[in-house]
Amino acid sequence: MKNILFSAAVLTVMAFTTANSGYKPGDVVKDFKLVNIDGKKMSLASNKSAKGYIVVFTCNHCPYSVAYEDRIIALHNKYASQGYPVVAINPNDAVQYPDDSYPEMQKRARDKAFTFPYLHDESQAIATQWGAERTPHVYVVKKEKNTFVVKYVGAIDNNSEDAASADKKYVEDAVNALLAGKDPEVNFTKAIGCRVKWKKKAGE
Asked: Fewest CB atoms within 10 A around its CB: which of 22, 77, 91, 131?
């Protein structure tokens, strides 16, 4: 009986750890280098004038990502000049979802006139490291000395269908607080969207 209870406890801890892996508010993030749609590699340190970033894990095909696309563009247009540009990252497996391939990313960026980086996380290592689970999944990070610290994680706002009906704009509130020299009052919400499309493991 004790062994059964112990095994159950271990499984519970493992499940909790898996579900809660990745960066949380207050964590220092490890920088990365990913290929942008222009073929050049980019890191967070690439933009010396950035005060921080709005990092959005997103993709081409997910209806939630599509619904939020104009809002992501609007966030970049509003905050890039104030030091918080958008960096979009596509973590999806293009083998299973060809619409999320690198060439399709380039096409989507042209069609929507993206003015922010749209990076390809082909290995899915960055999505795993950050703990991205859905598209879109947002991380607002602030530059502190030579590091970037997570200040907000979660959804863009509280209405995935209609931007005009959203009465809680979590990312905007977080960035506005940081620009005012404060920490966000709400630093975590549940990301709403499609699950990240992970690569199939051998044998699956």
From this structure: 77
